[in-house]
Structure formats: structure tokens, C-alpha cells
Design brief:
The complex is a heterodimer of chains A (124) and B (595).
Chain A lengths: L4 E6 L3 H13 L3 E7 L2 H11 L3 E5 L7 H11 L4 E6 L17 E4 L5 H11 L2
Helix pairs in contact in A: 2-3
Chain B lengths: L2 H24 L6 H24 L4 H18 L6 H24 L8 H18 L34 H32 L2 H29 L4 H44 L5 H11 L6 E5 L10 E3 L14 E7 L5 E7 L6 H77 L4 H26 L2 H6 L1 H11 L4 E5 L7 H21 L6 E7 L3 E7 L13 H12 L3 E6 L5 E7 L4
Parallel strand pairs in B: 5-6
Antiparallel strand pairs in B: 1-2, 1-4, 3-4, 6-7, 7-9, 8-9
Helix pairs in contact in B: 1-2, 2-3, 2-8, 3-4, 4-5, 5-6, 6-7, 7-8, 8-9, 8-10, 10-11, 10-15, 13-14, 14-15
Classes of the chains: A alpha/beta (124), B alpha+beta (595).
């Protein structure tokens, strides 16, 4: 069995970071690498923890999720990135779909099953 | 004047003129009946005619009456052309009264009143002279003095009808020389006073006064010369010539009145025309002043005004350039006309004193200028109002946008995030229960508080958008409820005002809410805040705290106060914030009820 998948989550809502943490904990084979509440912190954390999978909220103050994803992929091309949002996917900026991320996911669809399937389909 | 009365007066004047022309021809003693008839009737016709013309004109009615009366005196004086003792004697006495009337008319031109002190003094002396020097001698003389200017009976003149006693020497030796001297002095004084008046007036008045004054000065110089020549016992032909010229100058004087009045009418018409057309183009008060100076032919014309009471930056009087000024007062040769406007503002025009004789003209000038000033004021007010309305519309629109953005953000950050999280947690719970169904009650119970939080959140949000109590129970109830939730102790004193249009209720409600928040945030040391709601010229609301207060002049009116004001002004109301350092803050607003 391979080593567990390290998951980094980026969301300015602390409450939801906790939810992601719980989902990761409930998903066998995934470990919580850490959470960040803004883009800058996310990039620092990524450099530090070298995550395999990164979940990034689209709507954040200062640096939005699309920009964070782009920068993060520049520095860690091997990471698997998914954008998450509480908005309906239709209401997200077009750039979200064109940022090189593997998926754009409504937050409510987040679950251990999704994590597993997503990793299985896109693992590198 | 009534048209019928005027026709009657004209007809009467014509009859009198004919009578005056006929008398010399039916007289046995007239030496030159044609000349006498011509002088008598032409002079009478001009005096009565010009008098009636002035009488019929607005502003010179009184002068017209004076001149008409002078004409009547002249008619009576022409009776001295008759050969009967009674008519002759009456005519001779009226000859004196005519001179008095003419002196009065000249001094009283153009108002019909003698305004200056010198003129009044002359009039008093002239009346005294008639009463003391002439009339008392009537019973004591056999013959009236000869030659006399309008008497052409040679040595055949009738005797004095009113003579009752023989003539004492005193009259011939003392009274006659004395009264001739006084008469001469009066004539000279009138000529001097009129000349001085003419010199003292500006070009606008000179054109109306010059014809009159010129003729009058000539008249009195000639009349004076006649009296002097007669007293000196000069050559009879010379005295007769002076008498004849003196007669002519009466008609010339009457003609001078006519020319002067006509000139004045032309001037007034032109001047008011220029003023009324120019007043609409005047951009500021300085323009108005120069327009007035131009129309009054007087560069020294000055204009002052006060703002209507209640104008924020009212300072009392201002000069035409808008600078604060002392109250304008009449000065040497200057007259100040003050015109009060219905809105309480005042306009003052300082111009040459002589125009005081034309109060109606001055009033028209001032009214026109005041209307111009009012127009400028309204223009400025309207421009400012439009600017305010545009700015307030922009603010209201952006306030609406901001409110929507805030609701979206509150929903997104609050209820939506919680619901999303709840959805994920349900999924997690399902996963967990699939593996081990035993702790199901605990797992489900743990989700309960999450749902409660969401309910609270949505409720608070809905309340912020439109408080349900405001919709269901009205302003007073909603304010009481808002006061209960206020962090700073708040009490509500609300009169029973019933329900109002919802836009009025929400404007007042959110205004109070903002004031309560301001008091909570800024009223340092406040022990509480009182909200009052009552009816007075609309719906009034007051939010008063006993906190530290602030200096409104220091520009503390933040967007909160602006927003409150916008809300009330959009309903046609107003808002005022009274505060002073250390004396708390009072926000008072009003919205009209009937719209």
C-alpha cells in the first residue's frame, strides 16, 4: 500500500476548513496536511508540506482561489488541485475552469468517496 | 381719474378760456382788447391744459391739481379786464393769489408737495406777504396799484369796490415799498432755489426739470425786473414791455411743465424697458447694480440686499458684490429705498435724493431689481437643489447596491456556508452510520444545533432586510422592539400615530436604527438613549443621547448621517443633528404625512 495521500485545504471560512478536515479524516488513505485561510498562507504551506492533493475555495478575499491554484501549480506541478465553492458552478468565473485544475466541485459534494474517486482517476 | 370727470373738467376749462377771451372785448376800459384777450386766454388754456394732463397721469396727480388750481386763480385774475368795479376788484385780488399759486406750483414740481426746507420757507413768506402786506390793505385803498402786469385799462381803471375808508399815508409810504421789496426778494429766492435744484440733480432728473426750471427762472427774473422797474418809476414803455414779457413767461412756464412731464414719461418708459429686459440677463448682484446705474443714468447707484431669514449663511446686509455691509443709510444727497420681499429678504437701492420725488418710479425700479435678485436666488437654489438631488439619488442607488451586496455576503458567509457544511456532515454521518449504526441518535442529535444556528442566522438576516414587526404592527411597535435589542439602554416614547405608508415607516425606522447604532458606537459615556415619535407638521422622530456629544462643525457628519438624511429627504422630509461637545447628541427628523 502506497503512503497516504496528503491533503491541503484552502478556505477563508475556518468552519469549513474543519469540515474538510473531518472528511479527510474519514477517508482511508488520506491524511490531513493542513489548512490555510488565504492564498499566501496556502503557498507557504504547500512549499512546507508538499501536498499530493489541494482543495482550494474559489471565493477568497485578496487572492482568489483561481490565482492561488495557478501559482501553486507553477511551483508544484505534481500536485493534484481541485477548486471548491459554495456557489453554483454556473456562477463561477470562467477562469475557474481554465486554470489547469482537475476539477471544480460544489462544496456540498465533498465526501470521502469523492476524495477516493477523484484521486483514483487523476493520480499522477 | 374718472373719464367723465375729466371730460367735464376739459369742457369747463374750454368755457373759462372763452370767457377770459371775451371779457376784454366787452369791457369799456380795455385799451388793447385783442392783446389782453390773447394773453388771458392762451395763458389760461396752457395752465389748465397742462394741469389736467398732469392730473390724469399716475404719479403727478397732485401736481396736476396744484397747476389746475393755479389756472383757476389766473382765470379769476383775468376778471380784472372787466370794467365793473366788483369784477375788476376781485380780479385784482386774485392777481396776487395767482402769483402765490404759481410760486407754490414751481416749488412743488413734480410731486405737488414742497419737499425742501428752502422751498417751504419761501412758501411761508409768500403766504405771509399776501396775508399781511396785500389783503389787509384792500379796504383802505381807492385804487389798486398801477400799472399792473395784466391790467390794460390805462388811466380809466375802475375803483376798488371793497374800499371802505380813505387810504392812509402809511400804505403809500411804507407798506407798498416794503411789500414790493419782499415780492422782489421772493422772486429772486425762487429763481435761486430752482437754479440750485437744477444744479444738484443728475442727468436723469435734469431732463425733466430743466425745461420747468429754465422757464420758471426766466419768469421770476422778468417779474422781479418788472416790480423793480415799476417801483423805480422807470419809463412807462419799458415797464409795459416788462409786463408783457412777464405775461408770456407764464405760458412758457406752463409749457415747460408739459415738456418736463413728457420728457420724464419718455425717460421712465425707456428706463423701465431697459431694466425689465436687462434684469433677466443679469448673472449676479453686481450686474444688477450696474444695470440700475445704467437705467438711472447715475454711476453712483448702489445696491444692497439681505438674504431671506433662515438662509444658512445669512449675515444681514450685503453689498452688490456679496460682501457683508452695514445697513445702507441715506447720506449727503443720497436716498435709500428699501423694498421688503414676501420671503423676508430686503433689497435697498441708494440713488440720488431727487428721485425721491418719483416714489412710484423708484418703487417700480426696486421691485424689478428685487424680482431679478429673487430670480438669481431661485436659480442658485434650484441649481444647488438639483445637484443635491442628483448626489442623493446616486447615494441612494449605491446604498441599495451596497445593501444587496451585504445581504449576498451575509447569506454566502453565513447560512449558505453552514448549509453546505451541514450537507457534507450529513454525508459523513451516513458513511459513519453505514459502518456502525449504533451511535445513530447521538450523530443525528449532534446535527440539531447546527440547524438551529442556521435558523437563527436566516431569521436575523430577514429581520435586517425588513423587520417583520414593522410590517405587521407599525412604527411604534418596531421601534420598541429595536430599543430592546439596542446594546445601549434605549427607551421609546411613542405617540399613537397609527399606520403610515410603508416607505415612510421604513425610512423612519431605519433612520432610528442608524441613530441607535451611532449612539452605541460614538456616544461615549452615555447612560442611555431616548427615542421619541410624535405628530407635528408630519411625523417627527427624535433620538437623543446623553453622551459626550461632538462638534458638528468639525465635520463629523459621516455616511451614517448622510444616509439617514437621504432616506428622509427622499420622502420629502428633513433631518437635523444637534450636538455639542459634552452635551449629548440629538438627531431630529421629520417626514410629511400626506403625499
Amino acid at each position: 500500500m502506497a503512503t497516504s495521500v496528503k491533503v491541503l485545504a484552502v478556505d477563508d471560512h475556518l468552519r469549513f476548513l474543519d469540515v474538510i478536515h473531518a472528511v479527510v479524516d474519514a477517508a482511508p488513505g488520506f491524511t490531513w496536511a493542513g489548512g490555510a485561510t488565504c492564498g499566501t498562507q496556502a503557498l507557504d504551506e504547500a512549499d512546507l508540506k508538499d501536498p499530493d492533493l489541494v482543495l482550494i475555495d474559489v471565493n477568497m478575499p485578496e487572492m482568489d482561489g483561481v490565482e492561488v491554484a495557478r501559482r501553486l501549480l507553477d511551483r508544484h506541478p505534481e500536485a493534484l488541485v481541485a477548486l471548491i465553492s459554495a456557489h453554483h458552478p454556473d456562477e463561477l468565473p470562467r477562469a475557474a475552469g481554465e486554470s489547469g485544475v482537475e476539477a471544480v466541485l460544489p462544496k456540498e459534494s465533498l465526501s470521502p468517496t469523492w476524495l477516493r474517486d477523484f484521486w483514483a482517476e487523476n493520480r499522477r | 381719474m374718472n373719464r367723465r370727470v375729466m371730460i367735464g373738467l376739459v369742457a369747463g376749462s374750454a368755457v373759462l378760456t372763452m370767457v377770459a377771451a371775451v371779457i376784454p372785448f366787452v369791457s369799456d376800459v380795455a385799451t388793447q382788447p385783442s392783446a389782453s384777450a390773447a394773453v388771458a386766454s392762451v395763458t389760461l388754456a396752457t395752465l389748465l391744459g397742462v394741469g389736467l394732463y398732469a392730473w390724469a397721469r399716475v404719479g403727478t396727480e397732485r401736481f396736476g391739481k396744484v397747476l389746475f388750481l393755479t389756472g383757476l386763480c389766473w382765470f379769476m385774475a383775468t376778471l380784472s379786464n372787466a370794467d365793473g368795479e366788483f369784477l375788476y376788484s376781485v380780479g385784482r385780488i386774485f392777481g396776487w393769489l395767482f402769483e402765490l399759486a404759481l410760486v407754490y406750483a414751481l416749488l412743488a414740481y413734480p410731486t405737488g408737495r414742497i419737499e425742501d426746507r428752502a422751498g417751504k420757507a419761501i412758501a411761508v413768506v409768500a403766504v405771509a406777504l399776501i396775508c399781511v402786506g396785500f389783503l389787509p390793505t384792500v379796504p383802505f385803498v381807492d385804487q389798486y396799484p398801477l400799472p399792473a402786469p395784466f391790467v390794460h385799462c390805462g388811466q380809466e381803471c375802475p375803483r376798488n369796490f371793497f374800499s371802505v375808508a380813505s387810504e392812509p399815508d402809511l400804505i403809500e409810504q411804507a407798506v407798498k415799498p416794503l411789500r414790493d421789496a419782499v415780492t422782489l426778494a421772493i422772486y429772486l429766492a425762487v429763481a435761486l432755489v430752482l437754479a440750485a435744484r437744477l444744479r444738484g440733480v443728475g442727468p436723469n432728473l435734469r431732463r425733466t426739470q430743466a425745461p420747468v426750471m429754465g422757464a420758471a427762472i426766466l419768469r421770476f427774473l422778468v417779474a422781479g425786473a418788472y416790480v423793480a422797474l415799476r417801483r423805480a418809476g422807470a419809463d412807462e414803455d419799458l415797464v409795459d414791455t416788462a409786463a408783457f414779457v412777464g405775461m408770456l413767461t407764464i405760458s412758457i412756464t406752463a409749457g415747460g411743465f408739459l415738456v418736463g412731464l413728457l420728457q420724464w414719461r419718455i425717460y421712465v418708459g425707456r428706463s423701465l424697458l431697459r431694466l425689465t429686459t436687462g434684469v433677466n440677463e443679469a448673472a449676479d448682484t453686481e450686474d444688477l447694480r450696474s444695470l440700475a446705474a445704467d437705467c438711472l443714468d447715475d454711476p453712483s447707484v448702489d445696491l444692497f440686499y439681505t438674504d431671506p431669514p433662515g438662509t444658512p449663511e445669512a449675515v444681514g446686509w450685503r453689498d452688490s458684490s456679496g460682501r457683508p455691509s452695514d445697513e445702507p443709510e441715506p447720506s449727503e444727497g443720497k436716498l435709500v429705498t428699501i423694498k421688503a420681499q414676501p420671503d423676508g429678504s430686503r433689497l435697498a437701492v441708494s440713488c440720488e435724493e431727487g428721485l425721491g420725488s418719483y416714489p412710484r418710479f423708484l418703487d417700480a425700479v426696486c421691485s424689478t431689481l428685487a424680482a431679478g435678485l429673487e430670480r438669481q436666488r431661485l436659480d442658485h437654489a434650484l441649481t444647488a437643489l438639483l445637484r443635491d438631488v442628483a448626489a442623493s439619488r446616486k447615494r441612494l442607488a449605491s446604498a441599495g447596491d451596497n445593501a444587496r451586496r451585504k445581504i449576498e455576503r451575509d447569506l454566502h458567509d453565513g447560512a449558505q456556508q453552514r448549509l453546505v457544511a451541514l450537507r457534507v456532515k450529513l454525508e459523513l454521518a451516513r458513511d459513519a452510520l453505514e459502518q456502525d449504526p449504533a451511535p445513530a441518535p447521538e450523530v443525528v442529535a449532534a446535527l440539531g444545533p447546527e440547524v438551529d444556528e442556521i435558523i437563527d442566522e436566516v431569521r436575523a438576516l430577514a429581520h435586517g432586510i425588513y423587520p417583520p414587526l414593522l410590517a405587521s404592527s407599525g412604527l411604534a411597535e418596531a421601534l420598541r422592539s429595536a430599543a430592546l435589542r439596542s446594546p445601549l439602554a434605549a427607551s421609546v416614547e411613542a405617540e399613537e400615530i397609527g399606520r403610515l405608508p410603508s416607505e415612510t415607516e421604513s425610512a423612519v425606522y431605519f433612520c432610528v436604527l442608524e441613530a441607535l447604532q451611532n449612539a452605541t458606537k460614538h456616544a461615549e459615556g452615555a447612560s442611555g438613549v431616548v427615542v421619541r415619535l410624535w405628530r407635528e407638521d408630519g411625523i417627527r422622530v427624535e433620538v437623543r443621547d446623553d453622551g459626550a456629544g461632538f462638534d458638528p462643525a468639525a465635520g463629523h457628519a459621516g455616511s451614517g448621517i448622510t444616509g439617514m438624511r437621504d432616506r428622509l429627504e427622499a420622502q420629502g422630509g428633513w433631518l437635523r443633528v444637534d450636538s455639542r461637545q459634552g452635551e449629548g447628541t440629538r438627531v431630529i427628523g421629520c417626514v410629511p404625512e400626506a403625499r
